[in-house]
Design a protein that fits this description.
FAD/NAD(P)-binding domain; 21% helix; 37 strands; 7-stranded mixed β-sheet; 4 domains; single chain; 16 helices; alpha/beta
Length: 696
């Protein structure tokens, strides 16, 4: 069985998302060519849907630029919209908009007199910056206590990264909606906020600066307003770390959030064959999302000897036929105006590529998922200005969204404890729950043996302690219990199964199957979860089944496909197995993992010294090393010499790479002077400050 391969452009089908087709298109143009966008769609998604990858060429070397982060953190997607340079990933298409590429330094239109007016000041008890899981959970807690709260977020829809997550979440079913899809958790949290009379939500609003008078400037609908909060809660999330390698600036190299934004928010497929770099949860989940959209995932490349994410995520990819290349690294991405191939190689004990081990794989996209860094600049500046600051979610510590929800609730309680005399303190069990949610995965153990002597039973393939209890919570008979810790313990079946299969459907890791031998013991029925395109798996067809490690077991007939509402868009496939294979079948294969599609080896094309470490200004590692060798220890001096940390990202990406180069050159962190930060976190047209805000 093969899933339909995605064509680049708009998604036509998806196993979880409802595909939008009825909206009246918004007409605009690209280089004079008429195109169509969906209402509210950002420029970058509309262009990629139309097959446009190159949005412009860099002023320094005329290399192509395209979408990378889709989160406003870089400026690789810069375009001219009606003559004004804008970030394509943050700017919605409007009717008649004329969009053109930026080639070199754009010539700006002549402006007239700027509109002027007073700057409005809005006082509020608590300003929450970020409407993701932490920010929304905190606002709900504060609003329930009657505190006046203003929540601001730079996106058009609340929910943060939740709106990109089509998979079911781990954690506690009772407290963090585990077993529920991220897109639905976003809807639930937003609904709670809408019911709070003291909570106001400003979307498409960017916090741009923190000032010494304890006010925070925000831009909303092109108007500038100062917020004067008694307390500020920073829940701005995280940014994705970048990985410099030859070709990493090519269009078609995406951060995980960018790919998920295109696929799951805007329903656009930017590629047909993908290589994923990084075996943490972010990379593993994004690879799964690509498969759901019909994109072929040629492999997950992880430099360590084991994946850093949950083992169940890696296992379900292997069962779907995706190879996971452990102890491998990426050497280069190849292409002219976009990615055409990727070279990977094995690494030795020291992390260096083993000579002669390189292979070049066909791919038209690379997903970089090598970790996250907290977006905490605003919090640090607020503290420097003497504000009462609290931080929650990934801005405080990188963890799963379930932990971010608890982090937001706890931060809200801490705010309440300082402002209301009868406030309830943070419950000790909340702190304990957060610690367990935020803890990393435990070691991987052996798979438990299926129960003996029973005719009907679930096979539980959880082999690693992670925070997850939906299977135990959903079983009406209490036939599944967690051994040891009630949240992180491994599940165990206790021997009384009705065959309802609710545990199979709710498991976020798709790690449970149901074996039923009550009919013909020689031909047991095995129920497996399936979240790919279930239209291809109909009763009477045959499927290639595989075991928990992804090894094929043979082809077996499908006797039924169940798609009921309570299954929450997870199809349950009933397969007629054999006595020997019933307990072993864990999933359905969708492609041959040995189909590597190797192409002719390509030279890396540049040395490590040629690799760009500052994307905004195209500064190479060699230039930075030369400056370090000449005695530069102050990043402010290096800014003046090379223009590092001066681009649109504000140094949020390149500073980390430059710090690593100092370390490699033997310069200790104590000897390096960090760059001076400025109040503005993002670019703002000067006319916005001149006009002020007519109303709050």
């Amino acid at each position: 069985m093969d899933t339909p391969r995605a064509q680049r452009g708009r998604l036509e089908r998806h196993p979880v998302l409802a595909i939008g087709r009825d909206a009246r298109p918004v007409r605009f143009s690209w280089e004079g060519r008429p195109l169509e966008a969906r209402p509210g769609e950002v420029i970058s998604s509309a262009l990629i849907a139309a097959g446009v990858d190159v949005f412009g060429r860099h002023a320094k070397d005329r290399t192509p630029q395209g979408l990378f982060c889709a989160n406003g953190q870089c400026a690789q997607c810069l375009v001219l919209a009606d003559g004004i340079p804008v970030k394509a990933c943050m700017t919605s298409v409007t009717t008649g908009m004329q969009v053109r590429p930026v080639v070199g330094l754009p010539a700006l239109p002549e402006g007239g007199d700027a509109e002027t007016g007073p700057v409005a000041v809005r006082e509020v008890d608590v300003l929450v910056i970020g409407a993701g899981p932490a920010g929304l959970a905190a606002a709900a807690e504060l609003g329930a206590a009657g505190v006046t709260v203003l929540v601001v977020d730079d996106k058009a829809v609340a929910g943060g990264k939740l709106v990109l997550q089509t998979h079911k979440f781990f954690g506690s079913r009772e407290h963090t909606s585990a077993g529920t899809r991220g897109i639905d958790i976003a809807t639930e949290l937003s609904a709670v906020i809408a019911e709070q009379s003291t909570v106001e939500l400003w979307l498409e609003t960017t916090a741009v600066g923190v000032f010494s008078d304890r006010r925070i400037g925000v831009v909303r609908n092109g108007r500038y307003t100062l917020i004067a909060p008694a307390a500020v809660l920073v829940a701005t999330g995280a940014r994705e770390r970048q990985l410099p390698f030859p070709g990493h600036t090519l269009p078609g190299v995406y951060g995980a959030g960018a790919l998920q934004t295109l696929l799951n928010r805007d329903q656009v497929a930017p590629c047909t064959r993908l290589i994923v770099i990084g075996g943490g949860n972010v990379g593993l989940i994004a690879a799964y999302h690509a498969l759901q959209a019909g994109i072929e995932v040629a492999g997950v490349v992880e430099v360590r000897p084991s994946v850093g994410g949950y083992q169940v995520h890696a296992d379900k990819l292997r069962r779907l036929g995706v190879p996971v290349y452990l102890r491998h690294t990426v050497l280069a991405a190849h292409g002219v105006d976009r990615v055409e191939a990727v070279t990977i190689a094995q690494v030795g004990a020291g992390g260096a590529a083993i000579p002669g081990s390189a292979n070049t794989l066909a791919a038209d996209a690379v997903l970089v998922a090598v970790g996250l860094a907290p977006l905490d600049e605003l919090a640090r500046q607020a503290e420097e200005c003497g504000m009462d600051v609290y931080v929650a979610g990934d801005a405080h510590a990188i963890a799963e969204a379930s932990a971010a929800i608890y982090s937001g609730k706890i931060a809200a309680r801490r705010i309440l404890a300082t402002r209301t005399p009868d406030a309830v303190s943070v419950p000790a069990e909340w702190e304990d729950e957060l610690a367990r949610l935020a803890a990393g995965p435990g070691p991987v153990g052996p798979a438990p043996l299926p129960p003996a002597g029973l005719d009907r039973y679930p096979v539980l393939r959880c082999t690693q302690e992670i925070p997850c209890n939906p299977c135990a919570s959903v079983c009406k008979r209490g036939a599944i219990e967690l051994v040891g810790d009630p949240l992180r313990g491994l599940p165990r079946f206790t021997g009384d199964c009705t065959g309802c299969a609710k545990c199979v459907a709710i498991c976020p890791g798709l790690a449970i199957t149901l074996v039923d031998r009550t009919g013909d013991p020689e031909r047991p029925i095995v129920t497996v979860p399936f979240e790919m395109d279930a239209a291809l798996v109909e009763a009477g067809t045959e499927v290639l089944a595989c075991d928990g490690d992804g090894a094929p077991l043979g082809r077996f007939p499908v006797v039924a496909v169940r798609r009921r509402t309570w299954q929450d868009r997870t199809a349950l496939i009933d397969i007629e197995a054999t006595r020997a294979t019933g307990d072993a079948i864990a999933g359905i294969r969708v492609r041959d993992p040995h189909d590597l599609r190797l192409v002719e080896a390509r030279p890396v094309g540049s040395t490590p010294e040629d690799v760009v470490v500052c994307r905004c200004e195209r500064v190479t590692a060699g230039e930075v090393r030369a400056a370090i060798g000449s005695g530069v220890r102050d990043l402010n001096e290096m800014k003046g010499m090379l223009r590092v940390c001066m681009g649109a990202c504000g140094g949020r990406s390149c500073a980390e790479h430059i710090t690593r180069l100092f370390h490699e050159e033997g310069v200790g962190a104590a000897d390096v002077i960090a760059p001076t930060t400025r109040p503005l976190f993002t670019e703002v047209p000067l006319a916005v400050f001149a006009a002020g805000s007519r109303s709050p």
